[in-house]
Amino acid sequence: NKQVVLRDYVSGFPKESDMNIVEGTTILKLPQGSNDVLLKNLYLSCDPYMRMLMTKVEGLDVFGTYTPGSPLTGYGVSKVLESGHPDYKKGDLVWGSTKWEEFSLVSPTQILFKIEHTDVPLSYYTGILGMPGMTAYAGFFEVGSPKKGENVFVSAASGAVGQLVGQFAKLTDCYVVGSAGSKEKVDLLKNKLGFDEAFNYKEESDLNATLKRYFPEGIDIYFENVGGKTLDAVLPNMRVLGRIPVCGMVSQYNLTQPEGVTNLANLIFKRIRMQGFIVGEFYHLYPKFLEFVLPHIRERKVVYVEDIAEGLENGPAALVGLYSGRNVGKQVVVVARD
Ligand code: NDP
């Protein structure tokens, strides 16, 4: 049972060498009387929050932390090999909590959804049809409260979550601009993902001026994925009664000293609602989300870009690549295809 284990707690940017590939105990049978499920892992999801679990941070460990020497935990798509739980049976496909290894014993009391629709790529359940999809849906529609015609700005716009926020904004008849870290990503946003405009934030020396250019009348919704300098430049460009769903702050996760944000007073003058959220609070909406998104996928009205790494041994490189923007679209690791 090949596993990816954390070598030790990480400080600063994570490196491939912070993880080891080891041969763990092979689990072939469910222990007697167990309520767990034995899974064969097919696709693993690389998610930015995983960095936060690699360090013990006082007050920020809402998700717990990884244990050095043990496999990473995360989201994945898996096949049930054996089940001690009445809701699951051998052969079922599931997505949700699993571990970075070939075979895992998982308790169904954790997040675990049965996959009912297999006419779409299975890997989509790590992305558009899984946690990032729900994040974009809940963050944009529930937290962002969008209205037709509003101006929307999305950072990390070509990523797992951002590419969907932009497309959901277009379905709502909003004007949407995305920022991303390379020309390739900017082209993708404009030519494939339907954003009205996009720019490479690494090439803009004055982000405030850039935003004024794209939003002469201001931003109604800023979907926050990165934090730091981007947030600071957005605040003075927000409109009165604007909303900022705070999904993530990936630019801050590896800093020992987070960057200060100086323009927060705009929240007062413009009565802006800035609200953090965690996708886990919204999973009761998953059936409604599927009803909304599946027809759009089937009719190609919503598309999804994935970046596929082959093999568990390439998982550490794929994961750390998130923090340098190496991934183009949703970063997935293939462990097995069936
Ligand atoms: P992505 O697929 O977007 O991958 C991360 C991307 O972040 C990189 O590709 C890179 O894109 C960008 N990035 C990395 N470092 C920086 C930096 N220093 N400054 C600016 N951008 C950077 O990830 P996801 O779509 O999965 O996640 C997006 C955000 O949503 C993250 O902040 C994540 O933590 C958050 N999230 C929150 C959830 C919640 O429940 N609240 C659930 C899921 C995700 P580029 O090349 O464009 O810089």
UniProtKB/TrEMBL annotation:
<dbReference type="InterPro" id="IPR041694">
    <property type="entry name" value="ADH_N_2"/>
</dbReference>
<dbReference type="Pfam" id="PF16884">
    <property type="entry name" value="ADH_N_2"/>
</dbReference>
<dbReference type="InterPro" id="IPR036291">
    <property type="entry name" value="NAD(P)-bd_dom_sf"/>
</dbReference>
<dbReference type="InterPro" id="IPR020843">
    <property type="entry name" value="ER"/>
</dbReference>
<keyword id="KW-0560">Oxidoreductase</keyword>
<dbReference type="Pfam" id="PF00107">
    <property type="entry name" value="ADH_zinc_N"/>
</dbReference>
<protein>
    <recommendedName>
        <fullName>Enoyl reductase (ER) domain-containing protein</fullName>
    </recommendedName>
</protein>
<dbReference type="InterPro" id="IPR013149">
    <property type="entry name" value="ADH-like_C"/>
</dbReference>
<dbReference type="InterPro" id="IPR011032">
    <property type="entry name" value="GroES-like_sf"/>
</dbReference>
<dbReference type="GO" id="GO:0032440">
    <property type="term" value="F:2-alkenal reductase [NAD(P)H] activity"/>
</dbReference>
<feature type="domain" description="Enoyl reductase (ER)">
    <location>
        <begin position="37"/>
        <end position="333"/>
    </location>
</feature>
<dbReference type="InterPro" id="IPR045010">
    <property type="entry name" value="MDR_fam"/>
</dbReference>
